[in-house]
Amino acid sequence: MALDKSEIVRKLVPVFRAFGYEGATLSRISKATGLGRASLYHHFPHGKQEMAQAVLNYVNEWFDATVLEPLRSSHQPAKRLMAMSESLNQFYNCGQDTCLLSLFTLGECHDLFQAQVKQGLNTWIEHLTPVLTEAGLSIEEAHQRAEDAVIQIQGALVLTRGLNSTEPFQRILQQLPDQLLKPASQISN
Amino acid sequence: MALDKSEIVRKLVPVFRAFGYEGATLSRISKATGLGRASLYHHFPHGKQEMAQAVLNYVNEWFDATVLEPLRSSHQPAKRLMAMSESLNQFYNCGQDTCLLSLFTLGECHDLFQAQVKQGLNTWIEHLTPVLTEAGLSIEEAHQRAEDAVIQIQGALVLTRGLNSTEPFQRILQQLPDQLLKPASQISN
DNA sequence: GTCTATACACCGATAGAC
DNA sequence: GTCTATCGGTGTATAGAC
């Protein structure tokens, strides 16, 4: 039996995360799993597309269990947001690992996974929003700030790669809870 | 003589911007320019890498002339920032076009262009910082907010692609000037 | 300065032995 | 369930005619 399927998927994740869809060639995948091309097609009859789908599903579950789960707890909003920041730092390896969702918006796989990328981002935003309404923000303000949070995290990942420094990602994570919870101002916002 | 070199580069830009480095195949480049493979190698003896370099240089100049130039003017800080937002909206086609710098941090070309990507991002940040110090912010606060601005723009580009909506990018651009110029608070920031 | 033709490596995918 | 061998297609890059 050699390898459990979920174990294969687990080995596939870093390949897609590091090289993106097109860069995740069967050669690299073969090397990462230790399986030959034909064996891979035995486990994934639809080939690379099915592998990418499996990886996306796996990472989505992992993200839900580690990053979104703290948001669903019954602690204070501030505590839940700080827990998310800590989980994000782990999930993205201090900002040095890429976001699979953002990678899958690029190149030829853009159309393939567009619906799932959209859903993944919206799920994240929709988990953040009620935390902020519980903190006293209006539903509109909460949704907007939730979107801003995701924007800042994605942008920080870009700068962390581009500047080759984990400082932007670390700083954004650290300032996020206070920034999201600060009282809404009618005037200058 | 057929085509001026700068005209060729101009036609190359959308190819690299849409497909990234690896996705910008010679077939697509050939179609976009109307030139055969051999002709391309006549103009760019070092092949695709030289084409990408030319595109990066061209886009950097274009970015400097349209986005950074308003920041160097002698108008009020608020006016300069609003001018940047307007230029960004044009440069990124309402958020629907990608950032070449962020694309060039991915895949096999990451190492090739890392230094130039870093320089491009830092140049942008360093153009924003003095605008914010002129507005009364400390140098540290100004630099941090300048970095935040770039982070938000990059993140908004990701969400605009991922959610298939120009709303995030439009909103970030609109709220940027006020957000960057609001008085620094010692307490909740 | 552009073309046609082609070299050679690698791509994703499949056949068939074991 | 994994292997070796191979398919057709495409990738980047070159040679040589015009």
Structural notes for this entry:
The model of chain A has no long low-confidence stretch (mean pLDDT 95). Chain A is an all-alpha fold. Chain A has a single domain (49-186), classed as Orthogonal Bundle (Tetracycline Repressor, domain 2). The relative contact order of chain A is 0.10. Chain A is elongated. Chain A has 9 helices and no strands. Chain A has helices spanning 5-23, 26-33, 37-43, 48-68, 77-91, 100-103, 110-134, 139-162, 167-181. The A-B interface holds A 19-20, 22-23, 98-99, 101-103, 105-108, 110, 114, 117-118, 121-122, 144, 147-148, 150-156, 158-159, 161-164, 168, 171-172, 175, 178-179, 182, 188-189 and B 19-20, 22-23, 98-99, 101-103, 105-108, 110, 114, 117-118, 120-122, 144, 147-148, 150-156, 158-159, 161-164, 168, 171-172, 175, 178-179, 182, 188-189. The structure holds a DNA duplex (18 and 18 nucleotides).
Name of the CATH class of chain A: Mainly Alpha
Biggest interface in this structure? A-B, 44 and 45 residues
Number of helices of chain A: 9
Which secondary-structure class do the elements of chain A indicate?
mainly alpha
Average pLDDT, all residues of chain A: 95
CATH homology-level superfamily of chain A: Tetracycline Repressor, domain 2
Uncertain runs of chain A with pLDDT below 50, 5 residues or more? none
Which H/E pattern describes the elements of chain A?
HHHHHHHHH
Largest sheet of chain A: none
Oligomer: homodimer
Strand-residue fraction of chain A?
under 5%
What portion of residues of chain A is helical?
Answer: over 70%
By CATH, the topology of chain A is: Tetracycline Repressor, domain 2
Shape of chain A from CA axes?
elongated
Cα end-to-end separation of chain A: 60 Å
Strands of chain A, count: 0
Which CATH-level-2 architecture of chain A?
Orthogonal Bundle
Total individual domains of chain A: 1
Round the Cα radius of gyration of chain A to an integer and report it. Answer: 18 Å
